[in-house]
Amino acid sequence: MVSPDSVILTGTINKKFAGDSALLIVHGQFYLQTAPLQFAQNTLKAAIGSDGEFAFKIGSPNSPFHISVAFPDDFDKSGELKNPLHIANYLVEPGNNIQIRQKNDSLFFSGTGAALFDTQYRLQRLTQNQIKGDTLFGYNENPQRWLQIQDAHLDEIIGTLEKSKVLLSPLSYRIIKADYVGDNRQWVFEIMQFTGFNHRTPTGKNNKIVFEDLRNRTDLISKDSLEALSPKYVYFLYTRLVTQGMYAWAEQHDGANGLDVNLFGVMKNGYDGLVRDKLLYFWLYKRRANNELRPFYIDSALSIVKTPYFRDLIINENKAFEKGKPVIDFDFSDKKDKSWNLNDFKGKVVLLDLWFSGCSGCVAVAKGLPNVEHALKGRSDIAFVSLSIDKNRSQWLQSVSKNPTGQHYTHYTTPSTIYLYTNGSGTNNKFIKTYVPANGYPQLLIIDKDGAIYNTNPSKPWDRPGEENLIAELREALNK
């Protein structure tokens, strides 16, 4: 018997877009476009029939939640969803029974909840068209004009949503509004971080004017409301706090790097309850992803986080990265299809380099690693392991080939390095999800001779000092 609260999703899609299976992602407390599976509460897989039909049924939820429907080819090599046809982070309600039909390059919806999906589909298409017409260069040319354009985009989004308000439940309307306000404003503050600064120093008087304009505005969503917990709205609140911290730091430190500003104080004093706890966890998560997590950040957060769910996340994830914690086993293949697991390296210190083709930072690290290997040449108790998350085996092999052909990504290689890849799983495996939390690459990991964590944040050999620091860290691990 089907519960009246179950969510049922059926559809028919052109098989040339989909392949043989469909994936339904039930999102959790957070949503990252660059890593949509990272915080998933559940993933369901359904076969696609000969006529393109598929079906999903989701339990008996007691409140609205977000889902994505994707197909294997929708994910790029870094694990990000790229296909504009997919259903990305759509809100669903208990009892929804939605049929999806594809015609050419468009989707159509019917059944209970069709208005909810149709509204989000129109908003998704609208924002995609806005992004296509946008230019990042416009910010540096005229930041005030650029912000006016973003404001106009947001007004258009809210106006479009307002037309569907009578077709939606009050709660769904408020959550979707928070989703799209958060998405638009997160984009604004993210561009201010990376385009409005030059080596972490704010660029130009107009940049300052835009920042002051935004700082003096009243929020469109109350920080004390239920909808402020929307994954995209929380991401906006976090991005804004980081940007504000960068400006404050730059004013006091003559442009020194303020990206790793300690945000504990402003989160503690500026927010309460669930929103505060969610922000604190996300701050720790992003710091870990950027190799900037400091022990006192964790202690500070745990001193005030009350929500059991977020306390458990902080405690459990910190345990996974603790020095001496056994590393999760893996089963990955080398260039000759030989399988390797953690036990194959027992008795050796392992420097693991995680990367993907097309990542410029990964190339910079790979360029310095041969010098690190050379400094430790002749030692039999160390292994240098390169692990690519490329889903396409041919692309990976081309990247690590000694004799590459055509236009491709070139990885710096050495005869002694063991080259592995994740057997086509990309980022969708337990090992990568655990040790590369936000798909931040390149990532280095030092594993000790007993197969335990030694250093999850070793120096990166971008330059000579980085090489020397990494060599010293490896020698320390070898002499432990």
TrEMBL record:
Domain of life: Bacteria
Pfam name, any one: Thioredoxin_8
GO terms of biological process kind: cytochrome complex assembly
GO cellular component, one term: cell envelope
Domain Thioredoxin per the UniProt entry, residue ranges: 321-480
Keywords tagged on the record: Cytochrome c-type biogenesis, Disulfide bond, Redox-active center
Locations listed in the record: Cell envelope
Main location: other
Gene3D superfamilies: Glutaredoxin
Cited InterPro entries: Thioredoxin-like_fold, Thioredoxin-like_sf, Thioredoxin_domain, Thioredoxin_ResA/DsbE_sf
Alphabetical list of PANTHER family matching this protein: THIOL:DISULFIDE INTERCHANGE PROTEIN DSBE
Protein name: Thioredoxin domain-containing protein
